[in-house]
Amino acid sequence: MKKSVKILSVILALVIVIGCFAACGGDKEDTKTTLVMATNAAFPPYEYVDGNEFVGIDVEIANAIAEKLGMTLEIKDVDFGAIIGGVQSGKFDMGMAGMTVTDERLESVNFSTTYATGIQSVIVPADSEYVSFEDFYTGFDADGNPAGVKEGIKIGVQQDTTGDIYSSDVPAKWGFGEDNVIRYKTGADAVQALKSGKVTAVIIDNEPAKSFVAANDGLKILDGEYANEDYAICVAKENTELLDSINKALAELQADGTIDTIIKKYIPAE
Prior knowledge:
Layout: H1 2-27, E1 34-39, E2 42-43, E3 47-50, E4 53-55, H2 57-68, E5 72-77, H3 83-89, E6 94-95, H4 103-106, E7 109-111, E8 116-125, E9 137-140, E10 146-149, E11 155-158, H5 162-167, E12 181-184, H6 187-195, E13 201-205, H7 206-215, E14 219-221, E15 227-231, E16 234-236, H8 240-255, H9 258-266
Parallel strand pairs: 1-5, 1-6, 11-12, 11-13
Antiparallel strand pairs: 2-3, 3-4, 6-16, 7-16, 8-13, 8-14, 8-15, 9-10
């Protein structure tokens, strides 16, 4: 009888130890090893597909950040307009797609420090009568702001981008008005619309603009910059720990010249 009690005591002790181990293990959060980045891989040279691989400035910088964090980068190619919502909901850890910080976007997500600077440029047919985007306006008021848009002007943009946001504004704020802007899923779609005569011009970031012009005969970039902007990485508002880690990694990558080297690889100094 005593032997049975002793065996039972040992069994109970083992059950308690195993239960405690399981409870402790359940309370401990598994270390996250994958950094999920949402992008729109139709934006050369920042992100695009070469063969079966994602390549570009953002891709290489994101990989360098993941390495700094001891993580593996996983890229999700989605519509540009789905990036903010996906990051906000936690579907993606971060969004990186030549994305500019705007007041509207800051209502939904936080942004890292700037890692690159972009320019919005205007693409037109090579035989276009227009020399500058300012030629799209009817005239200017006493403060130098556009008074109106010429009849027939149609601007093609990639939907939800800053080119879309800026050009859709009213003429007095250097936009062209909602009625004169046609949105496309990708920049490439907008360029095809330009080639087929559906739009007067396409407004898009300068580096992709150069890539599109180089790949399509009969197009050119107008003189002048439509807008200047800074690119940053978006992160969910509550994910402050990741944002701090990304900013720390960016600072180190900027200090050691990694980011500059990556950018120059894709955008050689002219």
